[in-house]
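Feature request, filed as a ticket because there's no other form

It would be nice if the structure record came with a short human-readable summary line next to the tokens. Right now we just get the raw output. Example of a typical job, pasted below so the devs can see what we mean:
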Amino acid sequence: MNSLLVALLGLVLFAAGYYFYAAFIEKKVWQIDLAKKTPAVLKDDGLDYVPAKHWTVLFGHHFASIAGAGPIIGPVIACSLFGWGPALLWIVIGSIFIGGVHDFSSLMLSLRHQGATVGQVAENVLSRRSRLVFSLFLWLALILVVAVFAAVTAKTMVAEPRIVIPSLGMILAAILFGLMVYRWQVNQWQATLVALALIGYFIYLGLQFPIIINSPHAVTIWIVVLLGYAFVASVIPVNILLQPRDYLSAFILFFGLILGYLGIFVSMPKMQAPMFISQQSAQGPLWPMMFVIIACGAISGFHSLISSGTTSKQLPRKKAAKRVTFGGMILEGVLALLAVIAVCAGLSWTGGPAGLVYPELMKESGWIVTFGKGFGQLVAPLIGSTIGALI
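Raw output as currently delivered:
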């Protein structure tokens, strides 16, 4: 099957889900009173409760927060085990009918409890004991998530030292953007252009001057640095670092999405991987492992922490609630769809060129390299496979 047909079908279903089902949830289920002010406005403290300058800034923060490695790693692994048919079906159905509703509803519950986090909402709705249980679970989950992402990021910086300067430069650009927009009252889009130009310069510097730590403990060093950064970022006002950083990071994601789908439209590769492989795999049966492996990109409980933990405290107007959360989940589904096509159409399943065979790459190099190679092949007609793999 041609991957262009798969992409078009998925995009049409996502668009229909947002414009029809999301609107139904907004009007019929939550019945939002648009006249009421949000907790970000009512409780503005300049630290955690800060209304975003515009809903697009908050959308960037929310999307970049939920769309990390999850919507890529899950589909890449699942397609290699069960085929792209079940994965694609779950991504589309899950994002529209479960994930979008979950993220949107998490935000609305938080808004109706003055911006409370999901643990506090549990106490208000159920009991104090439920809050303790929920908070303990969330604490353990956050430790796991932070540890995993710190380790993955550290290994990536060691394996690809050209991304070190751009990654650190992103922090400086974000702080500059936050100061320009919130302190110096610079126009949002002018500040965006300045910050993106600065990021582009840092990317150039990164390509010219890769930062290599010549130590057997390089990964550990980066983990310590990243954890230290995470602590500092957690205590700085959200509109100075956290929100601007995610907003600017989202542009890189948008660029990758647009580039990837343009590559599909230009090259129109055929789906090389099987649509269906088997109900059984080395990781367990399709049910329930498909729904465990593909969480982000369909439905992830972690998103409730973003919706209630930070997004509800920055929402400038209730009118933007659906756009930010339901729209963010739909766009994450679009990213997961691209991941499926990248590895299933960008790579060969058997008998392909060396280094471009999907199962072999998964076995020898892991999901990061597998996705990078597949994405690079998709965008090769536009920018070349080498640069595409780096993106």
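Something like this underneath would help us a lot:
The chain has a mean pLDDT of 90.
The two ends are 26 Å apart (CA to CA).
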